[in-house]
Design brief:
With 82 residues, the chain is mainly alpha-helical. It contains five helices and two strands, in the order αααββαα. Helix 2 runs antiparallel to helix 5.
């Protein structure tokens, strides 16, 4: 159990980075206003829900869905063989 915990302890930070990669960039405001608060990613700007619903052509699937898929793949990869 301790080994599994060790392998995923930095997952929130890595997921935050992935979320930012999936965040559209026009002015950079959305990326600047997205932060990690504890283990939660907080998109603190008025149009975050709209972007996450696929409003931007840069991120037609939003940010949450691709980040969730990345997290699942990353957990599977990190815990493989335990």
């Amino acid at each position: 159990m301790a080994l599994a915990k060790k392998r995923i302890e930095d997952l929130p930070e890595a997921a935050h980075e992935e979320f930012l990669k999936n965040t559209p960039k026009r002015t950079g405001n959305a990326r600047r206003q997205t932060r990690l608060q504890g283990d939660s990613i907080v998109a603190d700007y008025a149009y975050s829900q709209r972007l996450d619903e696929g409003y931007s052509k840069q991120s037609p699937r939003g940010m949450t869905e691709p980040t969730e898929q990345w997290i699942q793949q990353e957990v599977d990869r990190r815990l493989k063989g335990l």
